[in-house]
Specification:
The chain has 607 residues and is of the alpha/beta class. Helix content is 37%, strand content 23%. The chain is globular. The chain binds 5-amino-5-deoxy-1-O-phosphono-D-mannitol.
């Protein structure tokens, strides 16, 4: 969840390190720090809060040096203070870390017993303290690094500087990703290739257990037993992506408005619009498998939940789905004849990756629905289904969600054809609907903003909001609630409309807005009955429906957002748009930090 970066350079590095950190700030923004070696001495600057605070500090007190490491933090152990900010220094050793050292308490006790004095409350400091101790015991730098790696347990991407070696950075990976960039007389290190894109597109990814010694002209890589390891050098696509807000106030807004384009791009990969066939080609054969497992976290999980409705309905394929943090511990009986799909924007989410490895151990074929094609989840899968959304910077996932849905819809239709549950005519009807989707998305985005802004004013005054939906609108209701709470900090819950009377109805009063997502589908009449129950108790209903739904619902709503009439398969993507925009505008009105909401990070690489 933290971002780390390093440069072994031939010119000053601190400004470049901070620029690279800016591209990693999506990983955490509780504090930031940079360390360099200059004139034989390790020096650092650290600042609490966003990167801009570190930049200000560096302007006041510049940090010279042609070698350095830097860090942007998402706090796990210890408050987000300057004292706990990385890099951590102990006796000529500087460390930045992403992950969690699980046995830090035990190591810390041991070190304290031998006289060590700890400066911070972090787990990371044990790494610096251990390496420093091994050096004092007489070990060389490489030996001390290797001994430390043998001693620590947990998840880590590490970069280590030694004061007595101003030409080398040591790095290690076990869990969180680490990319080494090859430059011209300089070498780079970063949590992802996007951070390194301004410097180089030639990347070597470390794999779990690897550690590396990086000099100005190259890198030596070793496995955990100290054997020399060879890892491929590849050309990264990351540099191709422009990462700026364009004319938008926030990345989230830009990403919402990009959806017609990116969804069209994604569909183009999975659907043949000439003969209207779903054309997902992969080495996962959906035809005979007894069941499919799906696992993911957060918004990606909710996309998976909608995918479950589609796989079960169109392909008659039973789907076992759970959030990844539960999936891997449930001891689900899994058949090796089945396949498993892992959905992740970043492709690095620790729980999703752990679920993937669990399924792999059980012999399942693994498919990855990912945005980052160079990610660990993609690399460890048998089949990769890229969602082609382009970089998503806003912490709240928007375009990745609708692209995930577009890909899942195409896969479900393709699976239906392979299993003989969708005939050619049905397939063509479904695919024609998908083809219409980008145009309708554009139409909706161009027309609903005034209404959404009006409504957001009401929502911004509320403490709690309930979202309801049935069928695929139920996961969308949960997604609406997740979006609102994560960026506006208004408490929100998403429920299956039919569950209302089993508890949540007790919350209904004139202060509680209830956002009902109800396209005019098979469930519409039932959802209307649930709305009647809300209205009867004085609840304020905001209905998001389509033309047909608005025409037949006779309810007295506080507001009704009317979207175009669309086929059932594309309704979740179309209805996502008002849901995302409502959260966005409400958060903006409340003055919240939309792209970097408190306590969150874009890439969650700790369990
Ligand atoms: O990178 P991933 O798709 O695996 O991330 C999963 C969740 O952390 C992510 O969707 C999170 O819930 C978002 N902040 C939601 O907007």
């Amino acid at each position: 969840m933290c971002g780390i970066v390093g440069i072994v350079g031939n010119q000053p590095v601190s400004e470049r390190l901070v620029n690279a950190l800016r591209r990693l700030e999506y990983r955490g923004y509780d504090s930031a720090g940079v360390a360099t070696i200059e004139g034989g001495a390790l020096r650092r600057r650290r600042a609490e809060g966003k990167l801009v605070n570190l930049e200000t500090k560096l302007k006041e007190e510049p940090l010279p040096g042609a070698i350095g490491i830097a860090h942007t933090r998402w706090a796990t152990h210890g408050a987000p203070t300057e004292r706990n900010a990385h890099p951590h220094f102990t006796d000529g050793v500087a460390v930045v870390h992403n992950g969690i050292i699980e046995n830090f308490a035990e190591i810390k006790d041991e070190l304290i017993a031998t006289g060590a004095e700890f400066q911070t409350e972090t787990d990371t400091e044990v790494v610096a303290q251990l390496v420093a101790k091994y050096r004092r015991d007489g070990m060389g730098r490489w030996q001390a690094m290797h001994a430390m790696l043998k001693r620590v347990r947990g998840a880590y991407a590490l970069a280590v500087l030694f004061e007595d070696d101003p030409s080398t950075i040591m790095a290690a990976r076990n869990g969180p990703p680490l990319a080494i960039g090859h430059g011209n007389g300089e070498m780079f290190l970063g949590s992802d290739a996007i951070a390194l894109a301004p410097f180089t597109n030639e990347i070597t990814y470390l794999i779990d257990g690897d550690w590396a010694v990086i000099g100005t002209t190259g890198v030596h890589i070793f496995d955990i037993d100290g054997n020399i390891a060879t890892r491929p050098r590849q050309v990264s696509m990351a540099a191709a992506y422009l990462v700026d807000k364009g004319n938008h106030r926030h990345f989230m807004e830009k990403e919402i408005y990009e959806q017609p384009e990116v969804v069209a791009h994604a569909l183009g990969q999975y659907v043949n619009f000439i003969d209207n066939r779903a054309a997902p080609s992969s080495n996962i054969d959906f035809a005979k498998m007894p069941s499919l497992a799906i696992s993911a976290c957060g918004t990606a999980y909710l996309a998976g939940l909608i995918g479950k409705y589609w796989f079960e309905r169109y392909a008659r394929l039973p789907v076992e789905i759970d959030v990844a943090s539960e999936f891997r511990y449930r001891e689900i009986p899994l058949s090796p004849q089945s396949a498993a799909l892992f959905i992740s924007q970043s492709g690095e989410t620790a729980d999703t990756l752990a679920s993937l490895r669990y399924c792999k151990e059980h012999g399942l074929k693994i498919g990855a629905v990912v945005n980052t094609r160079e990610s660990t989840i993609a690399r460890e899968s048998d089949a990769v289904f890229p969602i082609l959304a382009g970089p998503e910077i806003g912490v709240a996932s928007t375009k990745a969600f609708t692209c995930q849905l577009a890909v899942l819809a195409a896969l479900a239709i393709g699976a239906g054809r392979a299993r003989g549950t969708v005939n050619e005519e049905e397939e063509q009807v479904l695919v024609r609907s998908l083809a219409e989707m980008p145009r309708i998305m554009g139409q909706v985005l161009n027309s609903i903003q005034p209404k959404i802004e009006l409504l957001s004013r009401e929502l911004s005054k509320c403490r709690d909001v309930l979202y309801l939906g049935r069928g695929t609108s139920f996961p969308l209701a949960m997604e609406g609630a997740l979006k609102l709470k994560e960026i506006s900090y208004i408490h929100a819950e998403g429920y299956a409309a039919g569950e209302l009377k089993h508890g949540p109805i007790a919350l209904i009063d004139e202060n509680m807005p209830v956002i009902v997502i109800a396209p005019h589908d098979r469930f519409f009449d039932k959802t209307v009955s649930n709305m009647q129950e809300v209205a009867a108790r004085g609840g304020r209903i905001i209905l998001i429906t389509d033309g047909r739904g608005a025409a037949v619902s006779k309810l007295d709503t506080m507001h009704t957002i009317v979207l175009p009439d669309v086929d059932e398969i594309i309704a979740p993507m179309i209805f996502s748009l008002p849901v995302q925009l409502l959260a966005y505008h409400t958060a903006v009105l409340l003055g919240a930090d939309v792209d970097q909401p408190r306590n969150l990070a874009k890439s969650v690489t700790v369990e």
